[in-house]
Records
---
Amino acid sequence: MTFTEQDFRRSAAQIRQQIGDFQPEVFLILGSGLGFLAEELDNPTVIPYEEIDHFPTSTAPGHKGRLVFGMLEEKSVCVMQGRVHFYEGYSLQEVTYGVRVARLLGAKRMIVTNACGCVREDWEPGSLMLISDHIKLCLESPLRGENLALFGDRFPDMSTVYTPALAEIARRKADELGIALKEGVYMFFPGPQYETPAEVRAARVLGADAVGMSTVPEAIVARHCGMEVLGLSLLTNMAAGILNQPLSEAEVLENAALAKDRFSRLVRGCLQEM
Ligand code: HPA
């Protein structure tokens, strides 16, 4: 499924009918465990994904499927409460649909969060990581197909996907709040199976510090349309093969729950400065 300029415009217009002239400054995509932040907005307008044409609906556990508009830390935000993943069966164009709609609604900055596996043997599960860059060797690009010039160039530069000024805000805020924040490279895997130990070793050799099944398609599309991007990861587990134990979704969700206060304080802190 490829989308036309008209599709994106129509979805944005449908949303406009509900939010009036509200201008979201920051678009937030909340990964596992952080969805609750969407329930903390002041003056929220909630729009279920089903009510927006072409919007994919989220099937992943722990992900609600709705857009919430409102104020958070005195910033006007649009929150995607529940993201969609490639492994759910959606194309990368569908996975990233919301980013372009948010851009049409006026959002110029994006904060994207996720839960992911820790590749670094000298880090611990529960760590938070600022994404400095990413590796995506699997699958086609979410930008494959006709380039929509409305959004950006055919061959967009990816030298700085994650905006240095926003990274600096995150470092400073983490420091101020006394929250330890690692920094590293996130490598995208399509899932839904977790990686094999050999894949994790390969990721490490290639320069990855974390592995996960989201974020990168959205970051590419956001960068293409000129948005500034801040990526924050929660390392919920050691990646496959590092510990002598199988990975489980229960461990991921449990560690996401344990870190949610720290993670949300950091996200809120970053928003204050944006
Ligand atoms: N790998 C990929 N995705 C993940 C992981 C992992 O180890 N943990 C949470 N999401």
Note: The first strand starts at residue 26 and ends at 30.
---
Amino acid sequence: MKKLFILGNWKSNKTMEEARVWEQSFMPDIAGRTQDITIIVCPAFHHLTLFANHKGRYALGIQDISPYESGAFTGAISAAMVKDMVTYTMIGHSERRKYFGETDELVSEKVKRALDAGIRPIVCVSEPVQAERLHALVPAFSESGLILYEPLFAIGSGTSDSPENANKTAGFIHDIVPVPILYGGSVTHENVQGFVREEYLSGVGVGGASLDPKKFQALISAVV
Ligand code: PGA
């Protein structure tokens, strides 16, 4: 049975108090599961300290990482600064590419810093060519990376891609970079099962539906 990943991406949301309430009420019911499922919660950087007591119920990730080492890079969070707190880092989300001008070259530098620090990179792509460039720029990515495939029209729109289409694109990507591929874009507890059943999809990335702990739990229960 394939290993599955369920990633919650909070994006730029939640005060400390809201994050604390979420952390206290999030109790994923994964008892009795037969499937190997890794839940990855990606809050904002400053929330990470609230998660000291999650005790292995789920893994933690960060939403972005500096392309530089630690040092005189004001405002940047380096991989070395967070490597004791997180197992994963998202890199190159389409919102980073769109609003912060991130290029494939910058994404590849971030991937290198993550790999150097022993943090598993989850690179977001919206088309297979981005995976192709990533593979060319950082061949080592395929040793421990994951890809989150998110078609632009589906992000935050309430209209997901069809599982069949997403699987087809994931198949193309998998031929280029043979790593676990997740689908993201308007995933909810109602449609998640269709995606995780597909051959080339090893899980899902969840934005909006991860902000409410009960909705996120319902989505996880649907997979379990
Ligand atoms: P969404 O976001 O689930 O709100 O569509 C997904 C994402 O951008 O990771």
Note: The first strand starts at residue 4 and ends at 9.
